[in-house]
Amino acid sequence: MFWNDLPSKFTILAPMEGVTDVVFRQVIARAGRPDVFFTEFTNVSSFASEKGRHDALERLDTAKNESPIVAQIWGKNPEHFKETAAALGNLGFSGLDINMGCPDKHVNKAGGGAAMIKTPELAVECIKQAKSATKLPVSVKTRLGFTYLNEYKTWLPLLLEQNLAALTIHLRTRKEMSKVPAHYEIIPEIVKLRNSLAPETKLIINGDIKDKAQIEKLAEKYPEVDGFMIGRGVFENPYCFTNHDPDREELKKLFLYHLDLFDIRAKELESRGSRYPDEPLKHFFKIYFSGFNGSKEFRNELMKCKSTNELRKIVQKSTSILNQ
Fold first, then answer.
1. pLDDT tens string for the chain (324 positions)?
2. Cα–Cα distance for residue pair 74/146, rounded to 1 Å
3. Any idea where the domains of the chain sit in the sequence?
4. Active-site annotation, residues
């Protein structure tokens, strides 16, 4: 099992909808890769349907430089978990992760993500069905609770009793979203729960972790935590899995690399009869162009662009403002 072969205090790029697709994961791999990648999450009911499987498989595309990579799935139908888990074993993934923590209201309304905290028996059945259909190690990513913080006292033990390969805990409730600081103060109690109920399960924490330097401090303070997952921190520094502080020229080159990968992906999807929309690119502008005089105005110019070629022209012509 790959989880046992990882270095001590391993790092993971968090799965983020509309962000961590195969293109952006390759960008992070170049900047400074984590020890493990996760895909964006895929709906098991879409995967199990003839109509939705094509799109689901596209979401599960990977690149050669991403191993080990874990496929993340979500839903509420145990049979669909079973069917999807069985198929993932033949797609080159190192593991399978079930999302039981996404706070998105549409996902929750459909009964998936963090809403599974409110249906614990169903959550357990989904885990069991997934495990029954695959040899891949099965893990779960979740939150401390849905509404109340003390829900973790019953929810986390229930998950730990399922003999998971790994358990990732975003240290907030669904209700808290990201509006309050992550509850690091609860880590010692979570460690005790893991040690008593499932000592072989890898324990990973997530929430407010921004870079490698912070991970090193957390690892020293909480030595029994096995891994650390960075999510939004990647928006502040795409080199967050290293101790490198990039200058503006490096960020510019990384952005141009992102555009090249975007074009390759667009052509690939076009050959399959699909389309890679331009809109997601706008999510990333602030990663590469911020913190200098006129950065907001510069990003506004980028927002007006209709193609990657237009983006390249503006960036390459703006040497003076980018080198302030």
1. 999 999 999 999 999 988 999 999 999 999 999 999 999 999 999 999 988 898 899 999 999 889 999 999 999 999 999 999 999 988 999 999 999 999 999 999 999 999 999 999 999 999 999 999 999 999 999 999 999 999 999 999 999 999 999 999 999 999 999 899 999 999 999 999 999 999 999 999 999 999 999 999 999 999 999 999 999 999 999 999 999 999 999 999 999 999 999 999 999 999 988 888 666 688 899 999 998 888 899 999 999 998 999 999 999 887 655 555
2. 16
3. 2-236, 248-322
4. 102
* pTM, two decimal places: 0.95
Thinking of the domain 2-236, which architecture would CATH place it in?
Alpha-Beta Barrel (3.20)
Calculate Rg over the CA atoms of the chain. Answer: 20
